[in-house]
Amino acid sequence: MPFQPIKPKKVSTQIADQIRASILAGEFAPGDRLPPERELAESFGVSRPSVREALNLLAAAGPVSSYQGGGTVVLSLVEPSAGNPLTELIRSQQERALDVVEVRKGLESWTAFYAAQRALPGDTRRLEEIIAGMERNLEQMLPCEDLDANFHIVIAQATHNVVWLHLMQTIFDAMKEFQQSVWRAVYLTAEDQQLLFAHHRSILEAILRRDPEAARQAMLEHLTFAEQRSAAYVTRRQP
Length: 239
Hints:
Helices cover 71% and strands 3% of the residues. By secondary structure, the chain is mainly alpha-helical. The chain has a two-stranded antiparallel sheet with strand order 1-2. Helix 5 packs across helix 8, helix 5 (96-118) packs antiparallel against helix 10 and helix 6 runs antiparallel to helix 9 (190-208). It starts with 10 loop residues before the first helix and ends with a helix.
């Protein structure tokens, strides 16, 4: 069989390949915006038309979506392109959120396990910064719901498994409205806030100790508590 001539790759294809590799490596999470065209052009040392063509290639292939005036956003690898039907299911049947929390117990206990094995210094630094922010909010009795969500997403990133990350981001996006409602209705006392903080700190400490089983158990304990509070909220809202 005769060999075929080697064809050099277009610049735009090489750019698209590098961005795709970064997404698959978990360097960009679902919902993250890619840097603007100008910044990407400077980073790659190419022209903006080459970057624009690369982004169009990626958008056609599916890992990103470009919006007029809104930049380019990374899409979930596990979420249907038409949207997240789980979001609508939770809106229409809030008790289904308890099913999602049950799934989270299984998924996230193991993300914590793998994070304890694989977290890099940058991962643990981000987790420590989030815990420090939670502690500051606790002192002022300010809500920590955004920090709480970020903590769980960073743990998924610390597994360095892009499927864990995209699964978790998709679930958190679907649960966002429900979680906000639970935070505002259930976690109201200083004792509640202190307990949540203690849960998150225990998870972090296990990850820092490189103790996968302790991290898994700490996450399971935290999500079992969250499941109980979520169930109480759903029961209260039922007619």
